[in-house]
Amino acid sequence: MANSKDPAATAAGDAVEKLYEYGERLSESGDKSKNEADYIGIIAAAKGSSKAKQLAAQLIPRFFKYFPSLSAQAINAQLDLCEEDELGIRVQAIRGLPLLCKDTPEHVPKIGDVLGQLLLAEEGLERDAVSKALMSVLRQDTKASLTALFKHIENSDENIREKILVFVRERVFPLKRELLQPEAEMERHITDLIKKSLQDVTGAEFKMFMDFLKSLTLFNDKAPPERIQELLEIVEGQADLDAVFTITDVDHIDRLMSCLNMALPFYVRGASNSKFLNYINKHLLPVFDKLKEDKELELLKNLTESSPYTSAQDARNLLPSILQLLKKYVPRRKTGEELNYTFVECLLFTFHQLAHKTPNTTNSLCGYKIVTGQPSDRLGEDFKELFIDFTERLTVVEDSAKATNRKLTQGMSEHNKAMSAAKTDAAKADVKAKKQSASIELRTCNNILTLAQPLHQKAPSFFGEKKIFTLSWKENLKPVPAPAVPSTGNKRAAPAVNGSGATAVKRARGNGVGSTQLVNRALAGLSRGTRPGGSRGGWRGGRSRGRGTW
């Protein structure tokens, strides 16, 4: 019986042999441009058998740079191979993509764009190949590659965007020192890319980008004030301070509170809090009692911590609103109702800081007799009733705080006894929580007494930013050794006992919730579900992607 062979298999084998010949001739040729027909044959093999495709996926990139006139055909053939059904062919084609732009940098944007899309790959081997190929392209031309990737972050398919965000966070950001060279140019470039991509982000995404920007040399501790102001302006943009404020827009309020807390460290470094304060004064304080209680407290704490960095003009504008709010929470006569001591502490401290910036403004607000020699002293006018009203309210809050102190001190003894009697871990944890709550309230009351005492004078000395004062929610700090050469106005001291004799904000760490913790808590607690109207939490864009709320 005659020995017969499958014609199709024979043809496929011949095609593979031809490919090897093309490759050998190109490798041996001194002037490869004369072997254009061989390269055309390699490109055509991308539509051949499985073995031919796998070999073509290796040969197309290898000789790509020698045939610029065939670049479009070659790239398209290689990309077709990246979409093959067979995993081995796809992986081989993906591995070859970086070679298509190694000596032809003009192709980096296209290859970077394609690799970004290929991050959607489901097979682990394929995903690994894409990731390695992308890193190779990034090292070849970081600027063009990042630009291509960030275009997807800015306005791509939701699934692709999410994959690229993960890649950027896990693979690019940790290698910033290696990839972002020359440093000044590349840090500016990626900053601009990030700023463009923030038009529609979730709270967690925004925090990720801000944390990265703060890690750049461009914005480090030695950065000039205008760079820190740039960071603050990014936060202000996300807070959407030009939008019409609506008290029922819960998402905007959540976003605003998160941005307020993010902004605090920038005030310390010299950025202006003017835009945020003016927005708060105009839109939030007039409807303060309509906010949820946790948002009221968050807003007051933010005002308290940012008040030392307020300009005199902004202090002058804000003082009447703060005083009005203080009077709302401190009655002129005892009513028997329990006072909100944390609110009062916040408002009294903020009052001190603002009044320190513009002392004679308090003459017409509280009836003081502070002399600066300016017409705004208004010493010829009679504000006696205002002084009486204010000091009577101070007396009410002082009497209440003293009574609460006595009660809490007595309660501490009972908590100590309860702790000794507690047998289970749960019981001990419960007593510990009660003791901690009582301790914070004690500190709050002592702070109120410290803040209220000097305000009874006709010309009080207001607590300014150069004095040390430990706010109740920032108590229990371990003393920080003073630096060898303390900067002016920022000398740190050990926390005052029970708040007495202390007078300026102690920033940052501690048992209470610091600004970073507030941001993290706000971001962690916000839903990722779609709110009415869609978009990524309503942050900016509104492309109805359901990217979650703040």
From TrEMBL:
Keywords, in A-Z order: Apoptosis
Region of interest: Disordered: 482-511, 526-550
Keyword Calcium among record annotations: no
Recorded superkingdom: Eukaryota
Short name of one Pfam family: API5
Family annotation (SUPFAM superfamilies): ARM repeat (SSF48371)
Gly residues compositional bias, start-end: 531-541
InterPro entries linked: API5, ARM-type_fold
Phosphoprotein keyword on record: no
PANTHER family documented for this protein: APOPTOSIS INHIBITOR 5 (PTHR12758:SF19), APOPTOSIS INHIBITOR 5-RELATED (PTHR12758)
Similarity comment text for this entry: Belongs to the API5 family.
Protein name in UniProt: Apoptosis inhibitor 5
UniProt lineage: Eukaryota, Viridiplantae, Streptophyta, Embryophyta, Bryophyta
